[in-house]
Amino acid sequence: MERVKIVTDSTADIPKVVIEEFEITVVPLNIHINNETYLDGIDITPMEFIEKMRDSKELPKTSQPSVGKFTEIYEQLGKDECDIISIHMTSGMSGTFNSAKTAADMVNAKVYVFDTQFMSMAEGYFVVEAARLAREGKTALEIIDFLEKMRNKVKLFVVVDTLDNLVKGGRIGKGKAFISSILNIKPIAMLENGVYSPVAKVRSYGQIVKYLTNFLVEDTEGKQIKRVNICHADSLHLAKKLKDSIQNVFNQIDVEIGETSPIISTHTGPGAIGFFYYTE
């Protein structure tokens, strides 16, 4: 029976208990803030990072793991001649996939590098499913085929509370951000094909909750909902409001809330939430 080992990056936001249960190898990204460098998920917690980011005049910087780090991990895991599936955040927004791909081409181990076209907990769905299938004895190619078919079954939304980080990062202009702040506009975006697409602009937390709940109801009609997750960057109150709204409609569904990786909150800023679900 072929053995397959699973590797991912720290943006997948997978709970540590799940990582340990499935023996998933997580490669941390790097965070640079206030002239200090941290390993995501190892040297700094999400809330510690939020506080540092609030106090920082400059936007923190993030960087993908080095090719050398991936090479080291692949060589270590491949010593017993098992196959490796390395599953990562969208290549459209990070160089992590490319670092992993370059490393995979440099080692003797058989490494399959998979671009989920998602990030955060949506990326984590692919990682956990791959680990589950590997435990069941599926081959690497069977797992990759399953993951390819998963892409149209996963949805990811991001809602930002402030546009400050998007301005600092050069993603939108100051004028547009100023107008949006006056109007109290909170943009909602969906990650599709690896890049963000704006889908709505609302002006209150209540409208955020209503929009996302209604979208879930309409999009999942006739489908089986397998997972629903919410992550937040110091916005637990909004995450709870959304969870309560969803469970008022789907009272049998468990909605899990978690903190998002500093890698994600660097770009979204404090107060943001991510909303994810996976259907069959």
What do these coordinates show?
The strands form three sheets. The chain has a six-stranded mixed beta sheet with strand order 10-9-8-13-11-12, with helices on both faces. It has a four-stranded parallel beta sheet with strand order 2-1-6-7, sandwiched between helices. The protein has a three-stranded antiparallel beta sheet with strand order 4-3-5, with helices on one face. It is an alpha/beta fold and 280 residues long. 41% of the residues lie in helices and 26% in strands. The longest helix is centred in the middle third of the chain and has 16 residues, at 120-135. β6 (83-88), α4 (96-104) and β7 (111-115) form a beta-alpha-beta unit.
* Overall morphology: globular
N- to C-terminal distance: 28 Å
Q: Which radius of gyration do the C-alpha atoms yield?
A: 19 Å
**Average pLDDT taken over every residue:** 89
User: How do the helices and strands follow one another from N- to C-terminus?
Assistant: EHEEEHEHEHEHHEHHEEHEHEHE
Count of distinct strands: 13
Strand sequence of the main sheet, in spatial order?
A: 10-9-8-13-11-12
Major sheet size, sense and barrel closure: 6 strands, mixed
Number of helices: 11
Oligomeric grouping of the chains: single chain
Secondary-structure content class: alpha/beta
| Fraction in beta strands | 25-35%
